[in-house]
Specification:
Elements lengths: L4 H22 L2 H9 L5 H18 L1 H8 L2 H19 L5 H23 L3 H24 L15 H4 L14 H14 L8 H16 L2 H17 L4 H16 L2 H8 L9 H13 L5 H19 L9 H4 L9 H22 L3 H4 L5 H15 L9 H11 L6 H9 L35
Helix pairs in contact: 1-3, 1-6, 1-7, 2-3, 3-4, 3-6, 5-6, 5-17, 6-20, 7-9, 7-10, 9-10, 9-11, 9-20, 10-11, 11-19, 15-17, 17-19
Amino acid sequence: MQTTAPARMLERYADALAIGLVLLIFLDLPWYINGALLPALQSKVFYFAMFAACLPIIAARSADAVRWLGSSYGIWMLGLIVMNLAHMLGTLDPEAPKEIFSRIEVLGLMLVITFALSQARQGLLHAVLPWIGLLLAGLVIIDFLAPDRIIPQPIPDEGDLLGQLGQVEGRASGTMGNPNKAGEAMALLLLLSMPLARRRIGWLLLGAVGAATLMTASRSSIAAVALVVAGGFVLGTVPRILVVIMAAIAALLAMNPQLIVDYLLGRADLGFGNIENFVERLGTMLSGEFSDPSSNERILVLEEGLRLFIENPIIGGGAAATSLWDLPVSVHNQAVLMLAEYGIIGGAFWVAMLALPFARLLRGQGGFGQAALASLLMLLFSSATHNMLDFNYWLAAIALFSIGWPPTQQRLDALAENSEVGGLARSEGSESLVATPPGEMLENDFERPPSS
């Protein structure tokens, strides 16, 4: 079926927009530009610009947009918005509405942005995501080797924005500002980029992400990358010989941690960094004794979060309760946050989040191993962060999980058969993430008629 010139222009626009969106989201460029380069330029400006850029896609494919709201991810996101709105209207805390509205704002914007992502060709995004993962890993490595190159020291902001948002001296974060965020984004990009076994970039991406994650000293991210690599080894979606090499290097470092300590102590340019904290974090992973200040703080807030849930088991202590309490930080646990702030209802939304990757099985797409790995990754990070529903890269990744990411090799081979070059160039009857030719199983709970 021959497509018209406007339809081809729209397809190209959707592809270009998707590439721009994943770059902005997974490198957290709005934060970086605002926090490290141009403090006067608020990050919200970028997200509203992204929203505006999505409007032509929504206008041209309004039926798809409505169906996106009725997809598993759309229903889940709308439920979160309604739940937060109910808490905002019912709260007695004068400081809570502003915090809750900020959450609603993020959820609403990402519901629109993820629809635009869903309209890109799967082959195109699968070709781009590994390079974005490699770029982020490279930026983290540069940030570790030359700490003042990416994020200036001192930061050009009177309010110490980086300190407020979790910048940690001595731990690399690239453009993300926070090493934990950088580690999470790299683990997500690594999983979304699979299968890598047949691609040369797989070697580069695995090696770069493995090294960069170690440089963040983020314990949960190191464990998450190990989980993704192990899962890929079992599924055969990563180069197995490289996994063996990485495991051997990790074992060597684990048996000789003094190699890391000696290297750090020899880095004169890390004088601004907290080398003791860096080494202490890695040491707790090797010893299994989590008695450092960070771990003790996490235990304290976790206990308080559980206490809040026990006192208010049905509807919780109220949205934003763990953000506005007297403790220095929130609960560092997504499941406990949902229970503490929203009660059993919030817990149900958290369970639904873990189930979203399995929607592909209901559509007959297969890929149980990929779905299980995505769900396990979210489960692992749920034990270490409370920001999964606040950060854009998390909401984007969950959206992709819900529509069949990471794809199976069979899925990519099928896409390549319908494309002129390697699954990237659209041909008649080729598909976006959410559209399939008539009669085929749907990718994302709904069907878009082919362009005419």
